[in-house]
Design brief:
Elements lengths: L12 E3 L2 E5 L2 H10 L1 H13 L5 H8 L6 H5 L9 E8 L4 E6 L34 E2 L2 E2 L2
Helix pairs in contact: 1-2
């Protein structure tokens, strides 16, 4: 559906099924200039000087408008697995455009210690929730 190329300078780092790309700061600045919704989100995240809570994230993401054409112009897709396009990262948050092509998936994993909030801006995402089974006070793996 989308081309598998990045229209920016980046250094992909492969980890199993994940390709991570840090969006070049100049490309990010251009994206933010074309997408007031993302600009507002980044400005808010930068202003709170702490890790945001899930309720706060939900409040900011629920009506967020994203310039899809501008976003698509600076993100990429991995041939295998999925690609994490890191838009901005600080000590308190990481804003990422995660991209899958149809049929791609991830292995079972958790987000230990993270408060993760998602906004689907294009396409459909499905997921399954799992519960860790405990036997004799030790997790079964």
């Amino acid at each position: 559906m989308y081309p598998s190329l990045n229209r920016h300078e980046a250094h992909p780092v492969s980890r199993d099924v994940v390709t991570q790309v840090a969006i070049d700061p100049e490309v990010r600045d251009n994206l933010l200039s074309e997408c007031s919704g993302l600009t507002g989100l980044v400005d808010w995240l930068d202003s709170i000087d702490r890790r945001p809570g899930l309720k706060e994230l939900d409040n900011h993401l629920s009506n967020l408008e994203v310039n899809l054409a501008a976003l698509k112009g600076c993100i990429g897709y991995a041939d295998d697995g999925y690609q994490r396009n890191v838009i901005k990262k600080s000590e308190h948050y990481e804003l990422v455009a995660i991209c899958w092509t149809p049929g791609q998936d991830t292995p079972i994993h958790d987000h230990v210690g993270s408060d993760c909030a998602f906004l689907i801006v294009d396409g459909v995402s499905t997921g399954k929730r799992f519960t860790r089974l405990m036997i004799r006070d030790s997790p079964v793996r």
